[in-house]
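Problem: given the chain below (206 residues), write out its structure.
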Amino acid sequence: MRKRFGVKNVVWVTDRGILTSSNIKELVKPVEGLDYISGLSKASIRKLAEVEAIQLGLFDEVNLVEFESEDYPDERLIACRNPLVAAKNKKQREALLQIAEEQFELIIKAIKREKRALKGADKIALRVGKVLNKYKINKYYDLDITDFSFNYERKQELIEQEIALDGVYILRTSVDKTLMNGFEVVKAYKSLSSVEEAFRCYKLYV
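Solution.
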């Protein structure tokens, strides 16, 4: 890039799956004049939220928050929230929980019916497990299963934490603030969609 185009400073903009922490450490940081903009995984975002490195309450006023973390030395972290995605995620989660709980209630009725009642912890757990696996909502419930009963309760605190993270994505960058402010970093990252679209068009005609 430098030799061909005479570019002094290069900033790689990639999705989180390509530019991992190990790649940054081994391939990017050792090279002078080479910077990057990438994203954090959902697990990494959740970890930062758990240790309160990012104050999610700030999103009530703005949709972009820049902060630092000891886990990412010499990097700027920029947290963003898309309110439309947040609303969509919350609606989808609640819909899944409602559907699953309707299935749970049917299981409870089967346990309580007078004739051919569903009995046995193993059989009840099997029916419950099918519901959990189908809708992928295991983590949202505390379950109590015995030979003659089944009870469930939402993990409301966990659900509230998930709601707080809905629509949130965090960018990591080594670019100095004097070169790009937070909004410019976000704009550069979002430009990846244009690049991906260009590649798709290229493949169609090659």
